[in-house]
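Trying the structure run again after the queue cleared.
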Amino acid sequence: DEDEGIEQRLDGMANFGEFPWTVYVQERVANGSFAYKCGGALITSGAVITAGHCVANARSNPASFQIVAGDWDRRHTRERLPSQIRQIDRIVLHPNYYSGSLYNDVAILIFNHPLNESTPNVANICLPAIG
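Done. Tokens:
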């Protein structure tokens, strides 16, 4: 398939569906549209883990954020499968987050409704078992 050929590897792009847990976080800008803010990883069908500094200044306004899951290439609108967009209902910042340090620089974003994970381009991140 041309879309998964040598050109992609030379450009540094992942294959379609290669990292289905990867999402991007968008923040509402002045004109009302959403712009890329940072990346994240899908940990459940209803939550993403991201950097705390990405959302710390707006934790009282979670509706100013949304996530996009299943998008292979943000530069193009035509995808093999549609991406899924979810509004953020709640931001849970690490209780020991401090903006002057990278320690505890983590936040969980809770969606307004779960993602559909029955497609190959959206899935939870693969984490080791506890213990």
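The longest strand covers residues 34-44. Worth checking whether this holds up in the mutant runs.
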